[in-house]
Predict the structure.
Amino acid sequence: MSQKVVVIYSGGMDSFTVLHKALQEGNEVLALSFNYGQRHVKELELAANVCKQHGTPHKVVDITAINQLLSGSSLTDDIDIPEGHYEEESMKSTVVPNRNMILLSLAIGYAVSQEASAVYYGAHSGDHAIYPDCRPEFVRQMDVVSKMANYEPVAVHAPYLDVDKNAILADGLKMGLDYSQTWTCYNGRDKACGKCGACVERLEAFAANGVEDPIPYEA
Amino acid sequence: MSQKVVVIYSGGMDSFTVLHKALQEGNEVLALSFNYGQRHVKELELAANVCKQHGTPHKVVDITAINQLLSGSSLTDDIDIPEGHYEEESMKSTVVPNRNMILLSLAIGYAVSQEASAVYYGAHSGDHAIYPDCRPEFVRQMDVVSKMANYEPVAVHAPYLDVDKNAILADGLKMGLDYSQTWTCYNGRDKACGKCGACVERLEAFAANGVEDPIPYEA
């Protein structure tokens, strides 16, 4: 059923695929990106271009002011970005306190104000080990609480919740998506580092699908 | 049991009472206020003074940037503030989309970063009719989702959830609190208007307790 939905769209490959999935379902899509003081803005620039191509309204909200509340994560603080896999203990330093509840609550507020009936976001099973706020029970509870928090209920939907990044990419490739329009690397340099946790998982997903990643890498 | 807790403290009489209740329970309190572009900052100034008196750390976070997401409420937009009781239909224009989920999610993030184990806020039964995000089922569900969203669980606690504003004031008066250090009026003028929904409920609470409200009114 076609409906008006808000998609949390970071510009990375997961949310890029979610955006296209929501569009392909025939929904009226409102894209929402957050500027939280990322080390680079490449993701946001790519997101803006993609939305322009589709004629999809795209809102970027500056939430850098709330970083003072959430100290301790390497994505916005001056901590070294760890290398390796998400499963490793070191990746816990990339956990931003209560990140997804904050982003979802803002997206739900936006949905209410725009009379949209759902918020889509790109949680997937590969993040379950390290990020508690990507787990199925969290998504289910957010859906429950979201539906009771406002006069008009807003559903919380993570279409790839039960599959991993490889399957997301497989679905996107089947849709014919061009992943050169996405950015994943945690480091803020011109080319992707190929070593941070985000790059490693991205490269593995492309390898698993037998496809070459179209973005440039340093190594 | 004494613990470290975050209190969402607007500077109004309810959260002022919650703050003192949390202190009187022997907790280590971190006060958290939000600047969301209120028509006046009197509440925030009073909140800062009160925290200073107690030596309570007080964080004020500017979240005005998110107003662009949440259009349609008269508390921040240029809509006339309705007069009368909260129960009336017109008061619905004071409902900010998803307000309490947003503020709680930020406060929970702050609690995680400060290693606090609970967030206190001033929801009460008088708000149940108009504000879905002040109802017991909402608070219970936020507590559930909060405890699963992060490595260290944070409880959501509304100590006055089951009583009304009259009872909150009665408790505060029993604690010997000075309500001249609070502000409630929705209008941004020097004296309280005495007519907006917030003033009407405040004045009724004082009348119900047989005490004169110490703040100055226009009428």
Observations:
- The beta strands of chain B are 4-8, 28-35, 58-62, 118-120, 155-157.
- Residues 99-113 of chain B form the longest helix (15 residues).
